[in-house]
Design brief:
Layout lengths: L1 E3 L1 H8 L6 E5 L2 E6 L5 E7 L3 E7 L10 E6 L5 E4 L4 E5 L5 E9 L13 E8 L4 E4 L5 E6 L1 H4 L18 H9 L2 E6 L16 H4 L2 E3 L2 E2 L7 E4 L10 H18 L4 E5 L7 H10 L4 E2 L16 H15 L10
Helix pairs in contact: 3-7
Length: 323
């Protein structure tokens, strides 16, 4: 088998996630703290694909989870605790996507190095891994709903579905690559779980020691606010506007689109700030027909919201005819 190292994989992964290289005592890994991060590549001349991962979860928490998809077929999930996942893929050329698909609030992703870690990918001796065909890129900034938590139930990690949440559904329908910048419970005023700071702190960094070099997507979709409900509308408006200004500086010449949270939290404040900065604001009233817990969309709700979002984003990407 031919082994592709984290250093070889990083150029392929950087387009579809906030990945970096981390060196641990047991070797270097391709590393991220974001659910929904993807390694998307082209694999040719190999009957097998082996994904080697490290389970860097909190000791008392569940195993982290990954998902793999071949040529836009159904996603196959596997726990990081297995260490090694072996897939039969056939010798033709295939588009392969490997996604970080589950963790828990116990994982100290910000200061404890308990993010997702891919050790290597193996293919047959004559096999090759290369860059997948390029597509437009959309960044999604948000919280647990954007990250893909709690879609399939109320168990952390195993019931997360970043591969089929509203952002993933929209990306698939639009045929775009996506980058997820989202952390559970996070907002513009409320810090996220895992030691992660508020949005202004997590946007420029992968963790407390690792800066992120911003990409240049075609669109940035911001879905924040639901976790800031404990704060006053005035305080939220001040913090949200400051974050929008930060995002505009982070992504110059990129269109920012503001999404009203599915809960309709701070609807009037987000709308007013969007109008002030001449940014599109997408209304989400009645987008989600069902929820896991009254707040997080379940799978049916995620599909419905994803289809609505795809139709709303299509004109900004020069795509028409979505139904």
């Amino acid at each position: 088998m031919q082994n592709y190292s984290p250093q070889q994989l990083l150029p392929l992964a950087s387009r579809t996630g906030r990945w970096t290289i981390k060196d641990f005592s047991d070797g270097p890994v391709l590393y991220t703290t974001n659910l929904g991060s993807i390694l998307r590549c082209q694999v040719t001349n190999s009957h097998h694909l082996v994904v080697n991962v490290a389970n860097r979860h909190a000791q008392l928490g569940p195993s982290q989870q990954y998902a793999m998809r071949l040529d836009d077929q159904a996603w196959q999930r596997f726990p990081a605790s297995c260490g090694r996942a072996d897939f039969t893929i056939g010798p033709d050329s295939h588009t392969v996507e490997i996604m970080t698909a589950g963790n828990s609030d116990l994982d100290a992703v910000w200061s404890g190095d308990q993010g997702f870690a891919i050790r290597s990918i193996e293919v047959d001796d004559i096999g090759q891994i290369s860059m997948a065909p390029l597509r437009p890129v959309v960044d999604f900034i948000g919280d647990s709903i954007t990250a893909g938590c709690w879609i399939n139930g109320k168990h952390a990690a195993i019931d997360y579905r970043p591969e089929s949440n509203y952002a993933a559904i929209a990306a698939d329908l639009l045929d775009v690559d996506s980058v997820r910048i989202a952390y559970s419970a996070g907002g513009v005023l409320r810090p996220a779980t895992g030691g992660v700071p508020v949005a202004s702190g997590f946007l420029p960094r992968i963790d407390q020691n690792t800066c992120w070099q911003p990409n240049r997507p075609q669109l940035v979709v911001i879905n924040l606010g639901v976790n800031d409900r404990r704060f006053t509308a005035a305080d939220f408006a001040t913090a949200y506007e400051a974050f929008i200004k930060q995002a505009l500086a982070t992504f110059p010449a990129v269109l920012l689109i503001l999404l009203i949270p599915f809960s309709q939290s701070f609807r009037s404040q987000i709308t007013a700030i969007g109008h002030k900065y001449q940014l599109p604001v997408i209304d989400t009233v009645d987008w989600c027909p069902s929820f896991t817990d009254g707040l997080h969309p379940d799978q049916a709700g995620s599909c419905a919201a994803g289809k609505k979002l795809a139709m709303a984003l299509a004109p900004f990407l020069g795509k028409n005819g979505l139904e």
